[in-house]
Amino acid sequence: MIDLKALEEDLREEVSKASSLSQLAQIKAKYLGKNGYITQAIANIKNIPQEERKEYGAKVNKLKEYAENLIRQREEEIRKIELQEKLSKEWLDLSIPLEPAYGTYHPITQTLNRIKEIFISMGFSVMEGPEVELEEYNFDMLNIPKEHPARDMQDTFYVNKEGYLLRTHTSPVQIRTMLSHKPPIYIIAPGKVYRRDDDPTHSPMFHQVEGLVVDKDISFGHMKYTIEVFLREFFEVNVPVRFRASYFPFTEPSAEVDIGCVICNGEGCRVCKQSGWLEVMGCGMVHPAVFESCGIDTEIYSGFAFGMGVERLAMLYFGIDNIKLFFENNIRFLREF
Predict the structure, then answer these.
(1) Residues β-bridged to residue 279
(2) Which CATH class is domain 107-334?
(3) Tens of pLDDT along 285-303?
(4) Which phi and psi (to 5°) does residue 71 adopt?
C-alpha cells in the first residue's frame, strides 16, 4: 500500500512553497493528474486485501479531497499576491482630467444613413412598417402562392397560427404604401428582416432596404439608371454594373445586379470567387398581379422595385469578411468606425 501519510506531508510542503500559478499547476498534475500519485493510489484500491479495502479507500478519497482544497486555497492566495503586486506597480491618478470619449454610429447605421441620403437626394421618401407582419402582406399580395418554397418553415419565423410572422423582407412596406397612397410613388423601405440563416455571410436577423417606384410610363431603363447612379454614389467610384436575368414572384422581368469587385477591381480574388463580379441586389418591374392586389390600374401605371442587404453593402464598403462582427458588440471592432 502507498504511504498516504507521507504523501500528504510531501503534498503540503510542496504546495506551501509554490510561489506561482504555473508551479501550482505542476504540483496538481503531479498528485492529481492522470498519472499522479493520488490518482495511482485510487487505482490501487482494487489490489488491497478485501478486509482493508474499505478503510484504505476512505483514506484515499479523503486525501484527494484534502489535496483539491489545499491547492485551491493556495491558488487563491497566489492570485491575491499577484494582484497586490500588480496594483503596487500600476496606479491611476483620478485628479488628472480625462479626454471625453465620444461614441460613433454603428457601421450598419452609417451604411443605412448613407443609403437613405443618396435616395432622398434622388427624390425618394422613406417609409417604414411593422416587423411582425401579416402573411397576407408578406406573401399573398406579393404574388407568392401558398406552395412557394419561400413560405416553408425552414425559411420563415412564424409567430403563431393566425397568419403572423417575422417579416422576411421589407416588401410588405411596399404593399402597405400602395394600399394607402395613390401613385406616383417613389419610396425606399429600410428595416430589419428575419430568416432562418446563420453562417459567416448570413444572419437570422439582418437589415434590408427595398425601393419602389410607381408612375406613368416607367420602364426598365428608368430602373437601370436609378440603380447604376445609386451604386456609383455609394461606392464613390465609377464601378461597372451589370444586370443578369433572374426570377422573383413579385417582379417580371426580374434581374440580379452585379458590380465589378471593389476588392480586386475586377481582377479576380477570393471574395468574388475569381469572377471579378459581386452580386449586390435584386430588382425588376413590378408584376401586374401585385398592382392588381393593391388596386393600381396596370393600364395607366407601371413601376419597378429593388432590394439590397445592408450588411452585404457594409461588408463590401468597409472590407469586412464576417457578418457576425456587426452583432458581437466588440468595442475594438466598433472603434474602427
Answers:
(1) 258
(2) alpha beta
(3) 999 999 999 999 999 999 9
(4) -65, -40
